Fold this protein.
Amino acid sequence: MKLIFIGPQGSGKGTQAKIISKVLGIAHISTGDLIRNTEGDLKEEIDSYINKGNLIPDKLILKILSERLKKEDCKNGFILDGFPRNLKQAEDLNELVKIDKIIEIKISDEETVKRLSGRRNCNKCERIYNLKTSPKPKKDNMCDFCESILFQREDDYPEAIKKRLEIYHKETKPILKKYNTITIDGNPKIEKITKEILNKIK
Ligand code: AMP
């Protein structure tokens, strides 16, 4: 099964993609993670886009994604988390693969701001916490599992959040109008949303 999860930042699409990819035995491809883990010559250029909350150029992200899709773990299918982000990317993807379903996870802008500004990440074991929602770390700013210091992503600061939301409304949402989409409420508890998605994609 080949799925796309679309939603504003902080909607929980990454969390759901992680859980559901395991349930279905398919790959979870987060373009944000792919980009953040890029090393070498391109790193500085990429960081200059990410840190301000801007999208990286379509050509570059398409190249990174098409390489990833060639890997063995994509043979059974995959969930795309963070791609496509605009109509051009959606058209490019159409040329590459046939997608079965597009799932939109919906939350309000206020909820996005609340969730993103409270998000803290562990850069060692990559667990994600939230000071305002959940899971809250037991000790402020320390990972419960590996005790590393938590950090706040550069693009989770207010100016970048504003920019990312603007881009979501202007560039990403038009994809939902153009393609047949299943919409899921992103406000209930994680387990409830997972059930809802699994029901809808059956
Ligand atoms: P995310 O973790 O999905 O919020 O992505 C973090 C950042 O990576 C975004 O703000 C963009 O700078 C970049 N990025 C991720 N996916 C894409 C994409 N499909 N197209 C362009 N830039 C992207």
Summary: The pocket of adenosine monophosphate is lined by residues 9, 31-32, 35, 49-50, 53-56, 61, 82-83, 85, 89, 155, 164 (CB under 6 Å). The two ends are 10 Å apart (CA to CA). The chain has one domain: 2-201. The longest strand covers residues 101-106.
